[in-house]
């Protein structure tokens, strides 16, 4: 058993490759483009990269529907090119994590094509690789085996004519769920892990990992809660810990990192999987803090509530702060851009930086999503046909159908995952410097203002602010290991948190204004700002921070030396 490297000191950069950088001139991001941008990634001060899926996929869910686990999508390059990226990243001291998507495959995966042929497991080893059930009948009409809804596309069951049975798909129809209770399927997973770990990959981000074991009695769910009514039966299923332990054993042969992604996860289950003698994952990607402007799903949009956001932050910091370890993020390929959600377009630069400080100095391992460090924002498109994301399209055609088109498009504008999937804005050049030809997806027209090249030149840019934050975090024991305390939790405009290390006379306080207006603030009892060192502020140096007042979306980092109580 090899211990996993110290991921707690690190931060990671997430690449959603299709929109990152086009290196071979076909309008699609690829591993040639990634290779060319490794210097840039390294220059941010991160310690590793997480690649969203880069494997062959029909792209029903852009890579999360895999048709070959041991290869590279031809759009993105070859295994040889991947090895080059891996080697170069390693030379630079960057770790590389791949996405392990094992809850489901593509319906074009050879396992599924074989499984559709049916037959006994002796005749057809793939027969039980998926979750198949006979239809129920109402007279002549075929009905699915239960009333579960999928997360992306209507009912969770699809009838397959060839086999004469329904298969389960918790996500899109083209993403049939694997039957993890079949030991052969688990052996396949271990083989896939070994394949990449032998190549030198440093670990995995594990997709919807708490869904892989199901209650196979498949009981009906609550009919009034579509979209998630099967959740109690396919999340945290009866054999989950055992299966995760099997995969843990493989990861541990290589000292590989395992980051579990788990929608709807609770602090209790995160503690269960990441601590103690049954530790089967190193950290978990949870969703609570991504719900501060919506209800249950991001398609049911509400006004942003800072108190809701703070409650989520503090809940996770308190629950995992001492015993466990948090994965910190504000953006990824599953959520619209955070400035458009929790910040302000008017105060774009200020709010972009403030949001960085609001999460990067919490206790945990930060993940930064491509373009977040530039302050990229949501894209506004004129028709649903211009969108690509299966979940956005389905939501548009299903929910709020009676509303006028403009209103429904507004809902998609604020909620679509496609906003995080527009081409990376590298420069003011054609197609934002992403590609020499028309890219596969729309470039956000604001690239003339928001792009890496311009931000490199501007010492006051969001990009440089991210670099400063990561530097500060890396060089401060208090920021790495200190306890988290939230102050003034009831405030609707101010998020204030402190980090303090037991036995040290130092406290770092992070003040974040979420207000469009200037607001007064006071410090927690016993702290006097005149004795504090200002470590960071998101306004330019020539307009210094004034004690007692925060300008719109101002953030400051203050360091106090005091006797610890
Ligand atoms: C979570 C992934 O992050 C998301 O992009 C994907 O659609 C679902 N899991 C299904 O794989």
Question: What does this protein look like?
Answer:
The chain is an alpha/beta fold. It has 3 domains: 7-103 and 183-467, TIM Barrel; 110-168, Oligo-1,6-glucosidase, domain 2 (Alpha-Beta Complex), CATH 3.90.400.10; 483-561, Immunoglobulin-like (Sandwich), CATH 2.60.40. The chain has helices spanning 31-44, 79-91, 110-115, 183-199, 231-234, 240-254, 267-274, 306-321, 338-342, 348-360, 390-398, 405-415, 452-457, 462-474, 477-481; strands spanning 12-15, 48-51, 95-100, 132-133, 136-138, 141-143, 157-160, 165-168, 203-206, 257-261, 283-285, 294-295, 297-301, 327-328, 365-369, 483-487, 494-500, 506-513, 519-520, 533-537, 549-550, 555-561. The longest helix has 17 residues, at 183-199. It is globular. The protein binds 1-deoxynojirimycin. 1-deoxynojirimycin (NOJ) binds at residues 61, 64, 101, 171, 207-208, 261, 333-334. Residues 61, 64, 101, 171, 207-208, 261, 333-334 line the site of 1-deoxynojirimycin (NOJ).
């Amino acid at each position: 058993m090899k211990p996993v490297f110290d991921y707690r000191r690190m931060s990671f950069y997430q690449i959603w490759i299709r929109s990152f950088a086009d290196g071979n001139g076909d309008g699609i991001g690829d591993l040639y483009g990634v290779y060319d941008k490794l210097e840039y990634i390294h220059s941010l001060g991160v310690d590793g990269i997480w690649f969203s899926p880069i494997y062959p996929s029909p792209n029903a869910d852009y890579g999360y529907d895999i048709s070959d686990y041991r290869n590279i999508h031809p759009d993105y390059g070859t295994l040889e090119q991947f090895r080059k990226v891996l080697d170069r990243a390693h030379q630079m001291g960057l770790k590389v994590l791949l996405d392990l998507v094992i809850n489901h495959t593509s319906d074009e995966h050879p396992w599924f094509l074989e499984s559709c042929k049916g037959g006994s497991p002796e005749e057809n080893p793939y027969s039980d690789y998926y979750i198949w059930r006979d239809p129920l009948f109402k007279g002549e009409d075929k009905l699915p085996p239960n009333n579960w809804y999928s997360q992306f596309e209507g009912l969770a069951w699809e009838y397959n004519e060839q086999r004469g049975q329904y298969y389960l798909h918790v996500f899109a129809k083209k993403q049939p769920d694997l039957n993890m209770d079949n030991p052969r399927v688990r052996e396949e997973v271990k083989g896939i892990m070994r394949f990449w770990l032998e190549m030198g990959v440093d670990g995995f981000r594990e997709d919807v990992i708490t869904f892989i074991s199901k209650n196979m009695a498949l009981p009906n769910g609550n009919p009034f809660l579509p979209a998630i009514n099967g959740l109690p039966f396919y999340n945290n299923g009866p054999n989950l810990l055992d299966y995760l332990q099997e995969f843990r054993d493989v990861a541990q042969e290589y000292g590989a990192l395992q980051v579990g992604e788990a929608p709807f996860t609770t602090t209790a289950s995160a503690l269960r999987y990441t601590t103690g003698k049954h530790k089967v994952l190193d950290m978990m990607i949870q969703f609570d803090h991504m719900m501060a402007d919506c209800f249950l799903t991001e398609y049911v949009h509400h006004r942003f509530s800072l108190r809701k956001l703070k409650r989520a932050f503090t809940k996770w910091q308190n629950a995992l702060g001492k015993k466990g370890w948090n994965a910190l993020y504000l953006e990824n390929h599953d959520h619209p851009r955070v400035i458009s959600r929790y910040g302000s377009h008017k105060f774009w630069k200020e709010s972009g930086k403030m949001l960085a400080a609001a999460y990067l100095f919490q206790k945990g391992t930060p993940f930064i999503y491509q373009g977040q460090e530039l302050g990229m924002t949501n894209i506004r498109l004129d028709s649903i046909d211009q969108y690509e994301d299966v979940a956005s399209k389905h939501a548009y055609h299903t929910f709020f159908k009676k509303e006028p088109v403009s209103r429904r498009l507004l809902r998609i504008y604020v909620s679509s995952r496609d906003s995080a999937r527009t081409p990376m804005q590298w420069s003011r050049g054609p197609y934002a410097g992403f590609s020499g030809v028309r890219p596969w997806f729309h470039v956000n027209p604001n690239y003339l203002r928001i792009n890496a090249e311009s931000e490199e030149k501007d010492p006051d840019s969001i990009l440089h602010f991210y670099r400063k934050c990561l530097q500060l975090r890396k060089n401060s024991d208090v920021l790495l290991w200190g306890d988290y305390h939230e102050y003034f939790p009831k405030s609707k405009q101010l998020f204030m948190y402190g980090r303090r290390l037991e036995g040290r006379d130092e406290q770092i306080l992070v003040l974040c204004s979420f207000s469009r207006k200037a607001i007064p603030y006071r410090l927690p009892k016993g702290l006097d700002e005149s004795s504090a060192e200002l470590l960071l502020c998101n306004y330019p140096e020539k307009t210094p921070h004034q004690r007692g007042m925060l300008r719109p979306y101002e953030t400051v980092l203050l360091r106090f030396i005091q006797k610890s109580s």
